[in-house]
Design a protein that fits this description.
Layout (H helix, E strand, L loop, with lengths): L28 H27 L2 H10 L4 H17 L4 H13 L13 H15 L7 H19 L1
Length: 160
């Protein structure tokens, strides 16, 4: 089901924050869906360019050829719906993409599950992700964290 669902993992603990009380608002399901559709329409061109950039580059080839991982049609459909809504809520498209990459492609242990993956392969993947994010307005924080954990796990396995 991981390949078919958009899984969101919530951290066990997070930094504290202050809650600001807001006036209560009620929305119908229809109005919420209309806002989603408006966000998708408003950001469609920018998101399509982002998807095209990520799916036609070195990262896609590396994931496919070395890690047997890919985007697939389902991933692209989810990205085309998730990223614009994320942007409309005030987020950056790069952060939305990092979230999707971390939860759909790089989720914990998924890139190291094959016996033939080496530490250098993970370093190459990390560098490829960094190359994609060059010039963008944020960093692939979640993807970095997952790959770092996988690399450390693989180093322990190969060192033992």
């Amino acid at each position: 089901t991981y390949d078919r669902a958009h899984v969101m993992t919530l951290p066990r603990q997070d930094d504290g924050f202050q809650v600001t009380e807001l006036r209560r608002a009620a929305f119908s399901f229809e109005s919420l869906m209309q806002r989603f559709e408006d966000a998708i329409t408003q950001n469609a061109a920018e998101v399509k360019d982002l998807i095209e950039e990520i799916t036609s580059g070195e990262l896609t080839n590396l994931l496919k050829n070395r890690f047997d991982r890919g985007w697939g049609n389902r991933f692209e459909r989810q990205a085309l719906r998730f990223v614009p809504v994320f942007m409309a809520a005030g987020g950056k498209k790069e952060d939305a993409l990092d979230h999707l990459l971390a939860t759909r492609i790089l989720r914990r242990g998924s890139v190291t599950q094959r016996y033939d993956i080496k530490v250098k392969d993970l370093a190459t993947l990390e560098q490829s992700i960094e190359n994609v994010w060059k010039g963008w307005k944020s960093v692939p924080r979640r993807s970095r964290e997952l790959l770092s954990e996988d690399r450390q796990r693989k180093e322990r396995e190969q060192g033992a």
